[in-house]
Amino acid sequence: MHRWARSRWRSGRPEKYGAEPDEAAVESIYGAFEDSLMRSPEQYAAPKPGVVETVTKLREMGLKIGSTTGYTDAMMAVVTENAAKQGYAPDAWFSPDSVDGLSRPNPYMIFANMQKFQVPSVQAVVKVGDTVSDIREGRNAGVRSPGVLEGSSVMGMTQAAYEALSAEKKQAALDRARQVFLEAGADDVQLNIEQLPAWIQAND
To answer: What secondary structure letter does DSSP report for 129?
Structure first.
């Protein structure tokens, strides 16, 4: 079953439809999302703030950018084309389609990136992510796995909603999300992606 669709079911109306979806329900939810993505790729392809600038810095440090995703190859074909127009294009990406459907938190998409770049050791890899599945994927692969707070699914709010919070409520939300990442096994938790290059240099 698609984990994304299952989580959407649980966050919806389980008291009405049941706590656990069946296979048909999951496929229906995921299919609706896939159709929506194909109709409006720009809605799902925009890089988050700081990503383009951070990737430029990482490449200046001599690093390759590999991506893993829960999207299918067909969905990624749409997303990557539109993301590239907005300045973001990883050196490689792998979806569950590339690894026999073994999506996150399995480590195999990370290993596929390592094979692509001929990286001989997991010690040379950093898996940064903004979801718990990202962190668990990195931990299962044996690579360093910092989490990113701003814009994360763990924070669970839009940028506008986050910025509208008082300083006290914003800090409380950040603290809660940080704890979730740490409990998932994150090696560190950063406020935003722009802190990644300095973190890598400090932990080399």
So the answer is: B
